[in-house]
Specification:
heterodimer, A: 186 residues, mainly alpha, 9 helices, B: 485 residues, alpha+beta, nine-stranded antiparallel beta sheet, four-stranded antiparallel beta sheet, 18% helix
Chain lengths: 186, 485
């Protein structure tokens, strides 16, 4: 079904259309939520909360841009709010003001791994790093936008991202080396 | 280089696909429904409040009118009360005399009172009261006795104080008989007529009327000239004219019968469409839970069942077209569902512990069979309805109201989506409910009773179960209301 018709039907509160919209976007959106949280249960909570917002605010969509991108934006915002108010993440979601960050000049490692594996590596980052890495590297927000979203300075976002990126690259390299060693061992 | 890494990460993340578990959608759906319920309530509550408030306002207004009317119209007026209420005079200043005593020349006031048995008489009253004397009367009022009993031709007390004003009261009634009292302004006694039923004075309030002269001419009586009549508005009370008398509470007996079900009222997708919405679809769906690919057996479709209500109460006509009724009502609702195998073992469904349940998961059992189960719900309620007569000449009424209901007993089953099973627990049901009533009825008058018959819809605004917002009881059918007079 065309997204236009689907949204129109959802605005008419047709249950079948609402379920169809959910089924269409639930899987990719759960992946988004999964990257921001530490457990599947938390990801599903965010997904649920996000979809409720989607249905309540669908009239604001206005067919400006792609529906998937609009829903994804809602999911990301919901995820950040979830992290901010959830006690498990609150304590770790700190962004110290650091304006110095190392500029990585090395060639990035090859990502010869499954998507799930990479996502799990991102999820192992501390929540602050994890959030900023996701927002910048995956969602494509710039540091000014991230600063506004998280209520931090642009420089803080940059330095946090640099640290997150460096840490992730280090883990990826370690993982690649481990794979190589196991291959050689065989 | 930096961007290349981000591109790779982005690409990898696009490949990531996870499947949410089934309860996520159920929770989403539940929250959407809850919000819709809230919005619907926001719409309906002010409407009902407005209706009830308007009805009460009209009722109170009519009631107060009725009281003032009755005070004036139904008061038994004898000479004694007349004196207390209207003519309070100093003991020494006013004397009274029966009309049959024309000898007395110095009578200042003669009061004629019609009794309650003849409320239709025309009464003309004249008084000549000194203002000073009237003010003095407040300190020592004297009750003037009945003229039949008393005839006080006391010339010594004549024309002491009352000289100044002549007041004439006329009350028009059905009976053409009239009583005329008059007092000569200068203390001269008018010629008195022997009039029927003129032994009592009926003094209420007065109107100066040109017909006075005509009336008195007919009766060959001398009446003070109109010119001589002075209005004493402080002394004479104007009667309130009653427009409509609100009726008394009248007993009513009502019986309703029809079919009931459990579903949702959806104005966008057809009436009660969600009774057969997806969470009731009988066909299993696959692919729930992250990667488990299990087959999911949802809840059964709800089939409508028999329902009835009996109630005894009272009805009050607030205006010509608006009436209010309230009663004590017993409601019975039922519906039927298809359930799977009965499992007699202790189990926990959320916060509820049960000793048996009905599993819909056919994969768990070698011999699986569906069976029909009837849910019964017994409610006691206190409906409050307003009936509005749509047409002036025809007793076609639109009825709307609310009824708080208490769930007394039920054997109803609740579906657990995680365990794909039905269970019963009284605690899982909301006990207090609010139902809305809407109906049309046409009244037939048979002797001293009236019978109103018409279609009725009752819909539970509140949720039936505590944990599921999709289930609202409803009934539609015929309603017959017998009003006794």
């Amino acid at each position: 079904m065309d997204h236009y018709v689907l949204v129109k039907d959802c605005l008419k509160r047709k249950p079948a259309a609402q379920k169809q919209l959910y089924e269409l976007f639930a899987s990719p959106m759960l992946s988004v939520c999964y990257r921001y949280t530490k457990s599947v249960a938390d990801a599903e909570d965010v997904l649920q909360e996000g979809f409720v917002k989607v249905f309540f605010n669908l009239h604001q969509y206005g067919f400006k841009g792609e529906l998937g991108a609009w829903i994804r934006r809602i999911m990301v915002t919901t995820a950040i709010n979830y992290l901010k108010r959830n006690a498990r993440y609150q304590s770790e979601l700190v962004f110290p003001d650091e304006h110095l960050h190392a500029v990585d000049t090395q060639a990035p490692p090859e990502l010869k791994m499954e998507a799930k594996e990479l996502a799990d590596l991102i999820r192992q980052l501390p929540p602050g790093y994890q959030t900023i890495f996701n927002l910048y590297a995956v969602e494509g927000f710039n540091h000014i936008e991230i600063g506004k979203m998280l209520g931090i300075q642009e420089g803080t976002s940059r330095s946090q991202y640099a640290r997150a990126r460096a840490l992730l690259i280090q883990w990826i390299e370690q993982r690649n080396n481990a794979v190589k060693r196991s291959v050689y061992a065989k | 280089m930096q961007n290349e890494f981000e591109k790779q990460v982005q690409q990898k993340m696009e490949e990531l696909k996870l499947v949410p578990s089934e309860p996520v959608w159920q929770k989403v759906e539940m929250q959407i429904r809850k919000e819709k319920d809230r919005r619907r309530m926001i719409f309906w509550i002010p409407l009902f409040a407005l209706l009830l408030g308007g009805g009460l306002w009209v009722g109170i207004d009519q009631y107060s009118n009725n009281i003032s009317y009755k005070k004036i119209g139904n008061e038994k007026i004898d000479q004694q009360t007349q004196t207390q209420n209207s003519v309070i005079v100093p003991e020494q200043s006013i004397t009274e005399q029966t009309i049959n005593t024309p000898k007395e020349q110095d009578i200042e006031t003669t009061l004629s009172v019609k009794t309650e048995t003849e409320p239709s008489s025309k009464i003309i009253r004249s008084e000549n009261i000194d203002f000073n004397a009237r003010s003095a009367s407040k300190k020592s009022p004297r009750k003037i006795k009945s003229q039949k009993e008393n005839s006080i031709p006391d010339p010594q007390k004549k024309s002491v104080a009352i000289k100044e004003e002549t007041i004439v009261s006329v009350i028009e009634t059905k009976n053409p008989e009239r009583v005329i009292d008059q007092v000569n302004k200068n203390g001269q006694t008018d010629q008195k007529q022997n009039l029927p039923d003129s032994n009592l004075a009926n003094i209420t309030s007065g109107q100066k009327n040109d017909s006075l002269a005509k009336d008195t001419t007919k009766d060959e009586m001398r009446v003070p000239k109109i010119d001589s009549i002075k209005d004493d508005s402080a002394f004479i009370k104007q009667p309130r004219i009653k427009k409509y008398a609100a009726s008394k509470w009248k007993p009513v007996i009502t019986v309703s019968s029809g079919v009931s079900g459990s579903g949702r009222l959806d104005v966008f997708n057809g009436f009660l469409s969600e009774n057969k919405s997806m969470d009731y679809s009988a066909s299993p769906s696959a692919g729930n839970g992250p990667g488990n690919g299990m087959v999911y057996y949802p809840a059964s479709e709800v089939e409508e069942g028999f329902s009835f209500a009996v109630q005894a109460g009272v009805i009050k006509q607030l205006t010509k077209r608006l009436s209010f009724s309230t009663s004590l009502q017993y409601n019975y609702y039922s519906n039927s569902i298809q359930v799977g195998n009965r499992v007699a073992q202790n189990a926990s469904f959320g916060n509820y512990s049960v000793t048996q349940y009905f599993s819909n998961n056919r994969n768990l059992y070698s011999s699986f069979s569906w069976q029909s189960y009837h849910n019964h719900y017994h409610f006691i309620s206190l409906p409050m309805d307003l009936d509005w007569q749509l047409l002036k000449k025809h007793p076609l009424k639109l009825s709307a109201g609310l009824s708080p209901q208490y769930l007394v007993q039920t054997n109803g089953l609740i579906f657990d989506y995680n365990k794909q099973a039905y269970f019963h627990s009284k605690n899982a049901f909301n006990r207090l409910h609010l139902f809305s009533n809407l109906g049309l009825n046409y009244s037939l008058h048979i002797k001293k009773t009236s019978l109103a018959i018409g279609p009725e819809l009752q819909y539970g605004i509140s949720r039936l179960e505590k944990d599921n917002s999709n289930h609202h009881l409803y009934r539609y059918g015929l309603k017959a209301q017998l009003q006794l007079k």
